[in-house]
Amino acid sequence: MERLRPYLMLSPALLIIMLFFLGGLGVGLMRSLNYMPIIGLTEPNLDAYVGILTDRTFLRSLGLTLYIAIASTAISMTLAVASGLLLRRSFRGKQVMTFLFQLNLPIPHIVGAIGILFLFTQGGFLARAAHAVHLIEQPADFPALVFDRYAIGIIAEYVWKEIPFIGVVVLAILQAVGDEYEALAQTLGANRWQRFRHVLLPLILPGVLSVSVIVLAFTLGAYEIPFMLGRSFPQALPVLAVRSYTDPDLNQRPQAMAMAIVITVFSTLLILAYMELSRRIVRKE
Amino acid sequence: MTNQTRLTHLLRWLALSALLFWLLLPLIPLLIWSFAFRWPFPLLLPESWSLRAWQIAFSARSGMLAALWNSLVIAVAVTLVSMLVSIPAGRAMGMHRFRGKRVVEFLLLAPTIVPPLAVVLGIHVLFIRYGLADTRLGVMLVHLSPIMPYAVLVMAGVFANYNPEYEEQARSLGAGPLRTFWYVTLPAIFPGMMVAGLFAFLISWSQYITTLLIGGGFIKTLPILLFAVAGANDTALTAAISIIFVIPALLLLLLTARYLTGEDAAAGGFGRV
Question: CA-to-CA distance for A119 and A26, rounded, in angstroms?
Answer without folding.
Answer: 41
